[in-house]
Design brief:
- The protein has 9 helices and 13 strands.
- The chain is α+β, with helices and mostly antiparallel strands.
- The chain has one domain: Oxidoreductase, molybdopterin-binding domain (Sulfite Oxidase, Chain A, domain 2).
- Strands 1, 4, 5, 8, 9, 10, 12 and 13 form an 8-stranded mixed beta sheet that branches. Strands 3-2-11-6-7 form a 5-stranded mixed beta sheet.
- The longest helix has 10 residues.
- The protein is globular and about 50 Å long.
- It starts with 29 loop residues before the first helix and ends in a 13-residue tail after the last helix.
- Bound molecules: ligand MTE.
- The site of ligand MTE has 18 residues, from loops.
């Protein structure tokens, strides 16, 4: 992001160099799926069939299957991106700045034991072990577009539940106006923590109504399995109408605060990355246009036909009203 200045913001082999695997041929290891001991997985028989049909993963990680979501806007019908693309073309700067680095380096991330601390302006603060957090509410599958500020996008079947479920349980106080997400910064296992690329830990935040919006997903899995490390294991958020960098990975603290939290990218370059970061084709990044995007997997590399970027990444009907009256040019 900050340190790159080409149109696409990357200097990695183009996605067409990555051989797409046939992950959507419909073959999946049913036994693995049904073994689904991964805590809290909700596995109805139709969900298993559905997963068979749509979400073939490599079968290396523990199954985590959710029932198809009924939340409005949660299930795009666009072609889902190849698992290989979604797990080898990543931004996770703690493990390096090249798109291929997280897949290469994130094996060192230790995801058990893992605790998420809920603190700040809540009536019921506490520490949640990851297994308890996974079980806190029923898992759903959500097929969301994820649009990176760099100008590329993917379609990913995430598994999790609305962050609102957790927020309701911890009972925010009246003066809690924002939710801050603090992620792991462990120099022993994360080779780039300590580099000057960002001010660690990676921190993101949402306004309370954004955090409570049913589309905001507390995410534990993708493609019917637990999250691979490079995608933010064991828990991240996914906020589909905002640029990808709002979707903080490997969260260790969820903090309820009164004032807008300082976020990692905003601290690094305030004129480029605002707090809101809503996908908005009408507000250019200072160094490139945001009018179009390249769907990873479309082929053609840098010369691929680009798609028009939609307002709020296509989720305007669901979230547009959150920003009524807000000047989106100023609050980018
Ligand atoms: N979270 C942490 N902790 N560190 C990061 O560098 N990168 C962000 C976001 N979350 C990032 C992060 C950015 S820029 C993007 S586009 C998305 O993760 C990418 O998510 P994905 O690799 O699962 O597609």
């Amino acid at each position: 992001m900050l340190i790159k200045n080409r149109q696409d913001g990357f200097n990695h082999p183009v996605p067409s160099d990555i051989t797409p695997r046939d992950v959507y041929e419909g073959r999946r290891d049913m036994l693995k799926l049904l073994a689904g001991g991964a805590a809290g997985a909700v596995l109805s028989s139709w969900a298993a069939r559905d997963a068979m049909a749509q979400t073939a993963a490599p079968g290396k990680l523990a199954a985590l299957v959710g029932a198809k979501s009924s939340v409005a806007g949660a299930m795009t019908t666009e072609k889902v991106s190849d698992y290989k693309d979604a797990t080898t073309y990543n931004n996770y700067y703690e493990f390096g700045t090249d798109k291929a680095d997280p897949a290469k380096n994130a094996g060192t991330l230790k995801t058990r034991p893992w605790t998420v601390e809920v603190e700040g302006l809540v009536k019921k603060p506490g520490k949640y072990g990851i297994e308890d957090l996974i079980k806190l509410s029923a898992q759903e599958e959500r097929i969301y577009r994820l649009r990176c500020v760099e100008g590329w996008s993917m379609v990913i079947p995430w598994v999790g539940y609305s962050l609102a479920e957790l927020i309701k349980k911890v009972e925010p106080q009246g003066n809690a106006k924002f939710v801050e997400f603090v992620t792991l910064a462990d120099p022993k296992t994360m080779p780039f923590v300590g580099s000057r690329v960002l001010d660690w830990p990676y921190v993101e935040g949402l306004r309370m109504d954004e955090a409570m919006h049913p589309l905001t997903l507390l995410t534990f899995g993708m493609y019917g399995e637990v999250l691979p490390n490079q995608n933010g294991a064991p828990v991240r958020i996914v906020v589909p109408w905002k640029y990808g960098f709002k979707s903080a990975k490997s969260i260790v603290k969820i903090r309820f605060v009164e004032k807008e939290p300082g976020t990692a990218w905003n601290k690094a370059a305030a004129n480029e990355y605002g707090f809101y970061s809503n996908v908005n084709p009408n507000v250019d990044h200072p160094r490139w246009s945001q009018a179009t995007e390249r769907r990873i997997g479309d082929g053609g590399g840098l010369f691929a036909k680009r798609r028009k970027t939609e307002m709020f990444n296509g989720y305007e009907a669901q979230v547009g009203q959150l920003y009524a009256g807000l000047d989106l040019k100023k609050n980018y």
